[in-house]
């Protein structure tokens, strides 16, 4: 080769080391383009399966409004499940021994990698899957000859489902940052173990607090102070933790996981 | 510049791999990292790219702490590992999605390399042969104009013409601000390309010298008959004769035989280093 | 390029330069290829070809015009011949003479041989 490459004496432009919107955009574009094939396969197979199921149910149960709601619920279940699986795979490149180096040495900051992956797996996913559900719901209500039901399918339940997804997917997001491969199953397992430990702990606590005194937990006979405490915990504290603290906490932990990540 | 200071490192539940490892590398050179299998060559390279963190001590690359993986440092580093996988997209698409992160990426240079290596731009990367994939990564890595290039066994999987192309391209790519580090056990492939020999053995750097200094200080002889014993630093049987490393007292410089040198260093680094220190 | 086993690489590259000069491929005042081009051609480290250039410059065979490149000196050919002569006498002749002694050949034997089999002049 006879082309001589000129000496690059120009210092490279210093980039913002923590957060740069342009770079975040390029990162998201890269992540989507590099996985375009598997994304298309996932979208088409998801959409196709649900289309066939919807067509069958809607066609054979024309005029039955309940079937449309049933189908809608199926879409929501599929939405959540696909969302969890998709979120679990959002750091696939980092979790495979042959590609992790490329992800980790990509000149994008940890915060951008985190935010980019979260944007793709939460809001972007919700919008895209939402559009798909919209199409499917429209299609089934037309096929069931009840176009007037279509708008009412998007009731309060849908928004609760989306909100619950946005919170709970953060658990799978953390799982995606933490485990090396099979992230979805490992996260599920971790959740089960966690639930088991909490269950065991509450049982033991309950046993210590009440059973030793022969007290049965009963709303009528319960100590009123204790009852107020419980009411407060279950109606105020736990919902607050769930809706406002869980997801940010999971994302912060995910950030530290990314920071600790080695090959 | 790369500086590893008192680096200690062990993989979980294993004996320490590096103990008080110190190493300084300067731009303008191609460093050859040599070591036996399992000596930790790849792990050392991973430290430089911030892919492994020392248990104690530090690894600084261009002033950055490598493990922070600051994007400004990362755009100045390109790693080509021995084992890798490329996505199922074609070269043009890969370049347009990845080049943007490197502010000094040179598209014209990339085109020239692709032509030189005869790489098809429209075929999916995942369908290329291992050697072609490697050539693609080399082309991309050089086009990023990253100042630090880390190559783990780069000639593995390359056929003979490709090895020659590789040497030509590396020779043309080196300039005074580039630092290229190549780990290899196929010494013959890269013998004339490497100009600094770094030997890693039992958790530390036991030798780090420039080839010019080596050929000034020692000669490589293939028949030690008649050479006084006190001038011989290392000897071994080669084709029925005694070959070895001899103190260079005449000033006549011989070709540096990396295999012989490596064997000598691994056998008795202390003797050879003492001679270099004098 | 296949390198021989014994001599330092930068000197072997210098020998290639000498060949080009002796064969008049390069003549006085010619600009010679750059350090980098030579490194690419011989597939060696540019720092090695830089040693070759420094060595030849020290011997006065080539000279450097800052920012333009390296040129063959006016007396480059003469200097090369002198260097190669010295090299022949110092490095090759002793081995040659030793072999002659081992085989019991005399200079007269050689003279007779050369007269019988005129050497081609390349």
TrEMBL record, chain B:
Keywords noted in UniProt: ATP-binding, Nucleotide-binding, Transport
InterPro entries: AAA+_ATPase, ABC_transporter-like_ATP-bd, ABC_Transporter_VariousFunc, P-loop_NTPase
Superkingdom in the source lineage: Bacteria
GO molecular function term, any single one: ATP binding
Residue ranges constituting the ABC transporter domain according to the UniProt record: 2-227
Protein name: ABC transporter ATP-binding protein
Organism, scientific name: Pontibacter qinzhouensis
UniProtKB/TrEMBL annotation, chain C:
Organism: Pontibacter qinzhouensis
Domain HTH gntR-type: 7-75
Alphabetically ordered keywords of this record: DNA-binding, Transcription, Transcription regulation
InterPro entries, per the entry: Tscrpt_reg_HTH_GntR (IPR000524), WH-like_DNA-bd_sf (IPR036388), WH_DNA-bd_sf (IPR036390)
Protein name (record): GntR family transcriptional regulator
Gene3D superfamilies named among the record's database cross-references: 1.10.287.100, Winged helix-like DNA-binding domain superfamily/Winged helix DNA-binding domain
Gene Ontology MF: a single term: DNA-binding transcription factor activity
Keyword match Flavoprotein: no
Entry-linked PROSITE patterns: HTH_GNTR (PS50949)
